[in-house]
């Protein structure tokens, strides 16, 4: 495959890629690296994540290695998301991988989606500030302005964390 296939992926193809945890973790790992990765390094990392052991057991490493080599990497290569050089056993993201990026947030495999996080923080801040302004004993111990300022600060810090994480996850790198 070339560095850019200009192949437009359908939503079904993207969801098919991301609903498999191993493929999603593969893309997440490749996004965190700005270089070509060996199949051995990738399989070691995924096996470690899947087992929670470092180093992972040999049988798990071999299982992950084989499934990546035989199934997952060829599929991602065929879709133009990665380039997998089977003879050299190396893999790297292609420019067209950015098509999947937006879905990585919408279809998370781990953690809380940012939309849910911001909704919960907003709801909690509304309740706490309201209870403080109504003079509820526990919440009235601090002025409403301090509660509100604290939540605004939390939003600002959260926004910076989100911005930083998105900058790190940018897939549209030129190769």
TrEMBL record:
Domain of life: Archaea
Positions of the DUF7344 domain: 15-91
UniProt keyword terms in alphabetical order: Membrane, Transmembrane, Transmembrane helix
Positions of transmembrane segments: 117-140, 146-165
Name of a matching Pfam family: DUF7344
Protein name in UniProt: DUF7344 domain-containing protein
Source species: Halococcus hamelinensis 100A6
Lineage: Archaea, Methanobacteriati, Methanobacteriota, Stenosarchaea group, Halobacteria
